[in-house]
Specification:
By secondary structure, the protein is mainly β. It contains 1 helix and 5 strands. A 5-stranded mixed β-barrel has the order 1-2-3-5-4. Strand 1 and strand 2 form a beta hairpin.
Length: about 80
């Protein structure tokens, strides 16, 4: 993990085209955010190469930059 990256857990709410997903993150995991948040995420390169399938309802780990808390990258599926 790179320094300065926020790593949180969430649940996939919706699958979109081009390996994009809407992930629901529970309140309290993201600093300075008080309510549940929907984050637009794409699949990381290793998960694309290994054909990891993600469906709505799956629990995932996502990485976000502190500069834009509306977008992220899915790095792990539980």
């Amino acid at each position: 993990m790179k320094p300065g990256v926020i790593e949180v857990d969430g649940e996939v709410a919706e699958a979109l085209p081009n390996t994009m997903f809407r992930v629901k993150v529970v309140a309290g995991q993201i600093p300075s955010v008080a309510e549940d948040k929907i984050v637009l995420c794409h699949l990381s390169g290793k998960m694309r190469i290994n054909y990891v399938r993600i469906l709505p309802g799956d629990r995932v780990k996502i990485e976000m930059t502190p500069y834009d808390l509306t977008k992220g990258r899915i790095t792990y599926r539980y």
